[in-house]
């Protein structure tokens, strides 16, 4: 097999994302008609399925030797292999989609040796196209290099930070308790053992959270429970914008793209590692998604 042509893959993924964007914009979703997967907040629509079908058919025809991993065709036990692989979330932010809230994206990543090397995230409602190829920088709408501030400010602690988090679809048990307790501590004032972050944000799309950390408009994004298709594309976009990705679990500096635990920090001349350690100190326990 010849080495993947990353520029060509990037251009193909942009074309596919824009076609998917038209399908998403033309759909008329409602939360009454959405189906459930694991539980009543893990939603899927006919549009998620139709977009993934279009994406997988197009990519398999053009790149028959490469693997494909998609949210809507995933079955328990499937794993991300080390060969060249397309990773697709047809609609990241399905909950927003069914409520008509415009933070929705299609997220298309390409990995080699389980490392994201091309990423395309497209929000058709806002016409925001985030893209990156490993080693070639990250861009918004092809021309604006990320981060927005080409000389970003140093990170000066959680008490100056705007931090993205998500509720996810697991709403019980130890993993949920860790999230909830950490959110409380991040928001609380210092007298109550908290970090008093500027605020917490939830865009409802992991891919868009990562892209907004890449722009520098969020300082960090901490989440556990989401999947490789939620983060693969945003991962390379963030790294190409100078960001760092550790694990949501304290002490884990080198997370796996399919490890389901992530902590992204924006590019900065200093303070990235300190911010990671400061947030980890607020996390009681370790997420475990092995069951
Ligand atoms: C969603 C994410 C969201 C996360 C949810 C879910 P979906 O993806 O992007 O940020 O908290 O667990 O995975 O289901 O809309 O593709």
Question: What is the element layout, followed by pairings?
Answer:
Layout (H helix, E strand, L loop, with lengths): L5 H21 L8 E2 L6 E2 L1 H17 L4 E4 L14 E8 L1 H6 L5 E8 L2 E9 L4 E6 L4 E3 L3 E2 L16 E3 L8 H15 L11 E3 L4 H10 L4 E5 L3 H13 L3 E3 L14 E5 L6 H9 L11
Helix pairs in contact: 1-2, 5-6
The protein binds L-MYO-inositol-1-phosphate.
Provide key terms for this protein.
single chain; 291 residues; alpha+beta; Fructose-1,6-Bisphosphatase, Chain A, domain 1; D-Maltodextrin-Binding Protein, domain 2; 2 domains; 7 helices; 31% helix; binds L-MYO-inositol-1-phosphate; metal ion binding
Q: Which CATH top level class of the largest domain fits?
A: Alpha Beta
Here the CATH topology of the largest domain equals: Fructose-1,6-Bisphosphatase, Chain A, domain 1
Q: If classified by CATH, what would the architecture of the largest domain be?
A: 2-Layer Sandwich
**Large-scale geometry:** globular
Q: Work out the oligomeric state of the chains in this entry.
A: single chain
Strand order in the sheet with the most strands: 3-4-5-6-7-8-9
> Count the strands?
14
CATH superfamily of the largest domain: Fructose-1,6-Bisphosphatase, subunit A, domain 1
Helix content: 25-40%
Total discrete domains: 2
Gyration radius, rounded: 18 Å
Mean pLDDT: 96
Roughly what fraction of the amino acids lie in strands?
15-25%
- Helix tally equals 7
Catalytic activity: a myo-inositol phosphate + H2O = myo-inositol + phosphate
Protein name: Inositol-1-monophosphatase
Pathway: Polyol metabolism; myo-inositol biosynthesis; myo-inositol from D-glucose 6-phosphate: step 2/2
Enzyme class: hydrolase
């Amino acid at each position: 097999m010849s080495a993947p042509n990353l520029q060509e893959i990037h251009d193909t993924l942009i074309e596919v994302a824009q076609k998917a964007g038209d399908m998403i914009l033309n759909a008329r979703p409602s939360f009454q008609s959405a189906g459930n997967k694991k539980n009543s907040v893990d939603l899927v629509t006919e549009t998620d399925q139709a977009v993934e079908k279009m994406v997988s058919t197009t990519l398999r025809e053009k790149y028959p030797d490469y693997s494909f991993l998609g949210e809507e065709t995933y079955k328990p036990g499937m794993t991300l292999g080390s060969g060249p692989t397309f990773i697709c979330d047809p609609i990241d932010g399905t909950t927003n989609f069914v409520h008509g809230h415009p933070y929705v994206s299609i997220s298309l990543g390409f990995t080699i040796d389980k490392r994201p090397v091309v990423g395309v995230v497209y929000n058709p409602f806002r016409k925001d196209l985030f893209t990156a190829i490993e080693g070639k920088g990250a861009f918004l709408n092809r021309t604006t290099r990320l981060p927005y501030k080409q000389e970003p400010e140093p990170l000066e602690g959680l008490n100056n930070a705007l931090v993205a988090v998500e509720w996810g679809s697991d709403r019980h048990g130890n993993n949920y308790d860790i999230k909830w307790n950490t959110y409380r501590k991040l928001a609380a004032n210092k007298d109550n053992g908290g970090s008093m972050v500027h605020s917490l944000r939830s865009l409802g799309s992991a891919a868009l959270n990562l892209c907004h950390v890449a722009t520098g408009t969020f300082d960090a994004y901490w989440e556990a429970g989401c999947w490789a298709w939620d983060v693969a594309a945003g991962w390379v976009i963030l790294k190409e914008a100078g960001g760092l990705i550790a694990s949501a679990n304290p002490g884990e500096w080198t997370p796996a793209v399919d490890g389901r635990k992530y902590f992204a920090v924006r590019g900065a001349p200093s303070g990235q590692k300190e911010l990671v350690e400061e947030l980890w100190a607020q996390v009681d326990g370790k997420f475990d998604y092995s069951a």
